[in-house]
Amino acid sequence: MAIAEEKEEGKVWGLFKLPFRNAQSTTTSHNYRTQQRQQHQSTCLDDGSVPRSNSSSSVSSVARSLLPARRRLKLDPSNKLIFPYEPGKQVRSAIKIKNSSKSHVAFKFQTTAPKSCFMRPPGAILAPGESIIATVFKFVEHPENNEKPMDQKSRVKFKIMSLKVKGPMDYVPELFDEQKDQVAAEQILRVIFLDVERPSPALEKLKRQLAEADAALEARKKPAEDTGPKIIGEGLVIDEWKERRERYLARQQVEGVDSV
């Protein structure tokens, strides 16, 4: 530092006593003001006003860069997928996805291990406030070097992507390809294994979510109720038709006898 190094015969040079300090600062300030004046003149209109488009676009771009991206989906769990640790088996996890925005939102899953994992449903469109519990399937490989379940680290990751859509429509994966610039990455989910022999609140919550997902799947499989007229019984309809036919034939016979 200047104070510590510039000692001469017991004197210390102060920061504001260095030679040419004031002259350099004055010259630098004058050059800066001149440069700013030239830039202002180059961007001004003939009447001296600044174009609104340039100023508004620059301000909006700065605001967008400072504001964090607003999430469209609320996830539970928020940043992980919990799987029961059962080596050599296909296990399941569940995650609740809720549309927290005011518009319809499409979502889809992505994974780094598509050969050993799959999702149901892999994607869907949610109305504002609507929620769904998605089920994720994963095959658990046997550990190497006798690793313990809690010590095994999985490199598999999942990502949930979202896309704002205009309204209710059928979900197709091509939506995300057609509007790539509007797609947002909601969350990256890491895989967590839990020992099934050690009960925990996380495992109990997973069981409840899986049961709810299974119930919703069964409800979707049921055929829609028929709101049309119901036939009480086929036998009753046939019997009534026979009675009408017999009465008609009897009436025809009577009319034939009368005409003779």
Report a brief summary of the structure.
The protein is α+β, with helices and mostly antiparallel strands. It has helices at residues 2-5, 21-43, 52-66, 174-178, 201-221, 234-259; strands at residues 7-8, 11-12, 73-76, 80-85, 90-99, 105-111, 117-120, 123-126, 131-139, 157-164, 184-195.
Describe the structure.
With 260 residues, this protein is an alpha+beta fold. The protein has six helices and eleven strands. A hairpin with a 2-residue loop joins β1 and β2 (11-12).
Write the layout of secondary structure elements.
Elements: H1 2-5, E1 7-8, E2 11-12, H2 21-43, H3 52-66, E3 73-76, E4 80-85, E5 90-99, E6 105-111, E7 117-120, E8 123-126, E9 131-139, E10 157-164, H4 174-178, E11 184-195, H5 201-221, H6 234-259
Parallel strand pairs: 4-11
Antiparallel strand pairs: 1-2, 3-5, 5-9, 6-8, 6-10, 7-9, 10-11
Largest beta-sheet details: 5 strands, mixed
Instruction: Indicate the structural class.
Output: alpha+beta
Radius of gyration computed on alpha carbons: 38 Å
The oligomerization state is single chain
Characteristics:
single chain, 260 residues, alpha+beta, five-stranded mixed sheet, four-stranded antiparallel sheet, 11 strands
